[in-house]
Each structure stands twice: as structure tokens, then as C-alpha cells.
Amino acid sequence: MITVTELVKEYHTRSRDVRALDGVSLTVPDGSIHGIIGHSGAGKSTLVRCLAMLEPPTSGSIQIDGKELTTATARDLRRARRRIGLVFQQANLFDSRTVVHNVAYPQEIAGVPKAQRVARARELLRLVGLEDAADVYPAQLSGGMRQRVGIARALATNPDVLLCDEPTSALDPRTTDEILELITSLRRPDLAVIVITHEMHVVKKICDSVSLLEHGRIVESGPLTDVVATLDGRLSQMLLGIPPHGDVPGTLVDVLCRGSQAAEPIVAHTSKLVGAELAIIAGSVEHLAGTTFSHLRVAVPSGADARVVVEEFRRQGADARLTAELEEVGQ
Amino acid sequence: MDFSIITPQIWAKIWEGLGETLQMVGISGLFTVLLGLPLGVLLFSLGGAGKVGRATGATVGFAVNIVRSFPYAILMVSLIEVTKLIVGTSIGPVAASVSLTVAAVPFFARLVESALRDVPSGKTDAALAMGSSHIQIIWKVWLAEALPSLVAAITTTIVTIVGYSAMAGLIGGGGLGRLAYNYGYQRFIGEVMVITIIILILLVQIIQLVGEGIAKMVDHR
Fold first, then answer.
1. In this structure, what CATH number is given to the domain that contains residue B162?
2. Nearest to B86 by CA among B42, B26, B31
3. Do A79 and B131 touch (CB under 8 A)?
4. To bridge B180 with a disulfide, which of A72, B13, B101, B196 should be the other Cys (CB 3.0-4.6 Å)?
5. Each residue of B23-74: pLDDT tens digit?
6. Nearest Cβ partner of B126 from A82, A92, A137?
7. Is A263 a residue whose pLDDT tops 90?
8. pTM over 0.90, yes/no
9. Nearest residue to A180 (alpha-carbon basis) of A159, A166, A191
10. Over the range B195-217, which residues count as b (16 or more CB within 10 Å of their CB) and which as e?
């Protein structure tokens, strides 16, 4: 388990002071995969660098299983770093070493005997599906394979935390899915996984919980199924985004259904109950963490009362809101 | 050109000169790598260190630049006393190696520094994040990853030393430079000059080819 409390990182340059992290708090329990999503400039890279202790935070605390990292001495820190496996956007493999010796590197510097660390490296390469590539050099591998080697290397010391920094941002969609499947398959009761990304797709596909990072703060956080379950949440709007549509006459209403509800003809029911024909003009349906969510936008014809429509949707257990209100929330 | 005027005695001198040149290049090449490599690593690592480190780096860099601003001919004359102190004499290839080393170390150190700068910083981050110590990063990441460039730097440096060694010959170092000067310039036997030039060309070609071969062998990028 990794616990981050009030993490602050300030940079002082000659011209100005930058507060890249402005009090980030976060807990990721063992056995779960937590996504941290944010646009560029939100502080993602700084957060990764601080969590990996590549840069000391200005204040705040980082604890792994209750052990504080920020106050560790240089020697303790080197040991502590072995408890965090770091996966980079560019795999950052060593070109001078074969694949198996790349994966063996963390144990090599920890002083594990050669036969033992090479055996462990081969076992990890089998885990990521690359046992045949053990003796080639990284330059001969594709981007996806290099990332697999990077993941195997990050796991070599049996870390408690796997920290993935934009692990799929340099990969094509198909390879991205393969790497995401691999990360999902790593889920173990004693491993906390943090995935930092700007891609919604990554969060949707593998995360149990998610945090939204903006201007160095976590502005929204929670289990995936909770954060998307409310229409006016920022993460919900990002994860269950409505595709663009043209101008439609009438008042627009957004409806969010979850679970078994999403499979019911709720729009047809409501149409019947309010006596107006509601048209679905846009929508998205996603399976997130095992639950189906549907986010629909319906047009209420003039003559019908949109507020009554909203009430009727809510009465049937869905979240509903006038689209105009949501747009205000989103501003 | 009438190469028949090169008597067996002169041939013997030529081989002796080649031997002395190789000796100068060998000794100073070895010491240049031994001293210049750590200096280059120091220059590079101080660049990324804190305020004190950067100040130290600037000082070391300044000293390196001072030595580099000496034309070699002036440097070797000014080092005569130092050479006597170190090897006991200022005559002969061993003595000449002192000034050759002093001239080549800063040059090589700068090449090492720039070779290390070309190692992507992400690799250093990765090594740090995996718990590497500074020494481990220097050996296992910087030097290992920069090895092909370092081999190229050594090759360039040795070729430069070959050039300097001809000058060193003039103030008592011996070698092919001295030979070419004595026979070609002072006695007007141009043939000896031509032979010397051919030998030097071959020597530099061989060094370059061997260097490139090794660089290619260790390059897995």
C-alpha cells in the first residue's frame, strides 16, 4: 500500500516560482490499480518523479506500507527505491545489455548472485511473454516488446508498488491494449499499481479507482464506478463523454444509467409516461470495472416540460439533468 | 625520387623512429585514457550536481580550457622542467610522453564529457529509480551506454597524439617526426621524408580502422 499525504513540490527559477504539486494526497491499497489522469501541465511528471524519489518533494509524505520515504537517508533510499518498480513512457532500457541482463539489472546492483538473478530475469520474461527474446539487444525489439521488457525489469525486485508513467503513450492502439492486458494480469494481492496517463482509454480499461489531477491538485478521486455514477462529476464527463452532435430543436436532457438499468428501455418508458416522444441524439455506453454505464442525451420536443422528463428519469432510478445545467457545471 | 639512396643504416633509423613514435603514442595514449576518463566523468557529473558541484565543475572546466589553449609546441617547451622532475630527463620518447599526456588529457576529457552527455537522461533516471549508487551509474550506465562513443573518442585522441608526437620529436623525443626533420629538412633527403609520411599515413589508417572496428563491435544501439 502506498500513501501520499499533502505532497508539495515547488520549483524556484530566476523569473518565477512554480508550485507543480499543490498538496496531493492519495492512497492506493495493495491489489488495486489506480489511475491518475491529467492533461499535460497538470503535474503528472512531477508527481511521478517525486513518487519515485527522483526529486525530493518540498513537503509532504510518501509512505510504502507505513515506511516513510521522504526522510530516508541516501542509503535507505536506494533500498526503498527497490520497493517501487518504475515503468517509463520510453522503456529506457540499456542498449549495451541484452534483454535478460536488462531485466537482471535491479538485482545485479542489489548484489544478487548472477545465476540467481538471471534465472529470475528469465522467469519474468516468461511472465511478459518474451522468453524467446532473452538474448537479443533492445534495439532489435519493437516498441511494445521494449515496454514489456521495461515492465519485467520493474518487477525484478518484487516491488510493493508498480508506478507506470504513461506506459502506453508511445504505442499504437493494438500494442496499447496488449500492454494494458499485461498490466491487468500483474494484479497481485501484495502489489499496488499506479498508472499515470492522459488517456481516458487506459483508465477505462484497467483501473479500479481514479484521480483527476489538475494544477497540481487532485480535484476528484474515487472508485471508478462511483466517480462515473454522477452526471455532474468531471471524471464522469471525461470518461463517459458524449460525442459531438449538431443543433437539435427542443430542450436537451442528459441521462445516466448504470448496471442492469442500462439494459432497460428507459427512454421509451419515459416517453410513454410523459406523453412526449424523446429522441436520443447522442450517447455512450461503457463497461467500466465490470459495470455497464450508459450516458444518453435526449431531446425533449417543445410542448413537453423538460423538468417533468428529468423527474421521471430520476424516479426510475437514473441520474438526469438538463444539459444546460451540466454545461454550467463543466465550465 | 631515388629510394636507393636510403641505405640499410637509414632504414634502421626509420624502424627505430617508428618504434619511438609507437612508444610515445602508446605510453601517452594509455595515461591519457587513465587520467582523462575520470576527468571527463567528473566534468559531466558536476554539470548536473547542485550549486557547489556546478562551481567546482566550472573551475575544473576552466583549468581544462587553460591547458587546451596552449599550442602544443609551446606546452611541450614549458613542461621541460616538469618532465625532468617526473622522469629524470627531458630527452627521449618516455620524456616526450609527459607533455603529450598533459596535452591530450583535457582534449580527451572533453570528448568523454560530450559522449556521456549523449546518454539519454531517462536511462540515468531508470538506474536511479532502481536503486543504483553513483558508482554503479557511472560504470554500468554512463560508461557502458557510451562505450561506442568512448571508443571513437579514444581513436580520435590517439590519432591526435600521433600528430603531436612528431612535434615532440623535435625537442628530443625522437621518433618519425625527428627523422623526417633531420633527413628531409636538414639534409635534403626528400626520400626519407616521403617514407616517413607513408608510414604515418599507414599508422593513422590502421588506428582509425581498428578503432572503428572495435566501436562497431561494442555498439548494440
1. 1.10.3720.10
2. B31
3. yes
4. B196
5. 999 999 999 999 999 999 999 988 766 778 788 888 888 988 998 888 888 8
6. A92
7. no
8. no
9. A166
10. bbeebbeebeeebeeebeebbee
Instruction: Kindly state the cell numbers that stand for B47.
Output: 554539470
Residue type, B71: P
Cα dihedral B144, B148, B153, B159 sign: positive
What's the whole-number mean pLDDT along residues B14-21?
93
Matching residue, cell 498490466: A183
B67 touches chain A (CB under 8 A): no
Confirm if B43 and B113 have CB atoms less than 8 A apart.
Answer: yes
Overall domain count for chain B: 1
Q: Is residue B10 part of a domain?
A: yes
| Contact residues, chain A, for B133 at CB < 8 Å | 78, 109
Contacts with A196 (C-beta within 8 Å, 6 or more apart), sequence order: A35, A36, A38, A44, A47, A48, A163, A164, A165, A166
What's at A81, amino acid-wise?
Answer: R
Torsional sign, CA B87, B89, B95, B100: positive
* Distance of alpha carbon A206 from alpha carbon A263, whole angstroms: 23
List the single residue in A88, A92, A95 with the smallest CB-CB distance to B220. A95
The CB density around residue B43, as the number of other CB atoms within 10 Å, is 22
| Residue A139 per-residue DSSP state | G
Is residue B163, in this structure, part of any structural domain at all? Answer: yes
Residues in chain A, how many? 331
Its domain, for residue B203, covers 3-119+132-218
Residue A55 to residue A47: CA distance in whole angstroms:
9
Q: Are B184 and B198 in contact (CB under 8 A)?
A: no
Instruction: Flag whether residue A97 sits within 8 Å of chain B, measured between CB atoms.
Output: yes
Distances (CA, A) of B211 to A80, B39, B157, B203: 42, 22, 11, 12
Cα(B102)–Cα(B32) distance, integer angstroms: 8
CB contact (8 A) between residue B130 and residue A139: no
Whether B125 maps to a domain, the answer reads no
Which amino acid would we find at residue A78? R
